[in-house]
Amino acid sequence: MNRIFAITAGFIFLFIFHNINVSAQITLETTYPSSGTYTTLPISGTKFYIMDVVNSQCKIYNQNHTLWKTINLSVPANNFLYDIKYVSENLFTTDNSLCLAYIYYSYNETGQYYTYNAKIIKENGTILRSITGCQYLYVHSLADGSTKMVSYSFNYSIFPSTIETGVFDLAGTYVSNPEVPVNNGADYLPSAFPNPANVEVMIPYVLPEQTQSGRLVLFDINGKNINSWPLDGKNSSLRIPTASYPRGTYLYHIEAENYRSVSGKLILQ
Description:
globular; four-stranded antiparallel beta sheet; Lipocalin; Immunoglobulin-like; about 270 residues; mainly beta
């Protein structure tokens, strides 16, 4: 009798465990050959878009992953796509136009620095705004109902490099969640470049508002503190010689008073 009970109980356990596994399955729908993400369009619904660097295009897909639109992006010769942001309707205009922002860059081999630029366009290519030197831009919905865009433009051709923050009033409203939460540019850590690095790396930074000093801390992949450098509000980037460090993967973040940024990843090769 006990043997029958044990077998029955075991069968019930296996049946329940099997059903739990079945209900917890994660199903791959499709794959894309480029980086992409979702956006919510108030007129056209939810879409998925990718950045095609090779062809300088933004490709937008329906939720069933069929191609909806392809937007050609004007990228000058010897420049490359860096980012596509805010594929939207009624954000940059109020006429239901499909618009987006994109950033491209070039590398000056002689001076060993990058130059970034941003454009905001309609899907037909009409340029709504060009922002020289812009490497990052973010949209904020404010409590008073207004919508603002903040851009960060860098000049890496000089040392120390300079930063210019632009604030733009937008005509419409952003219906999706902000892509990166920021507070006056301080809740994110700009990407280091070149990355992977060899001889040296440049790390742009923005200190929190009303903060005059901080430090950038470098860790190895195991969390060991490798080095740190002082930061001040007068500069916008830190140049670090890397030739003496062992090759591998490192993490870094900014500390300033009670603030700590997200972590960035740096590869030395």
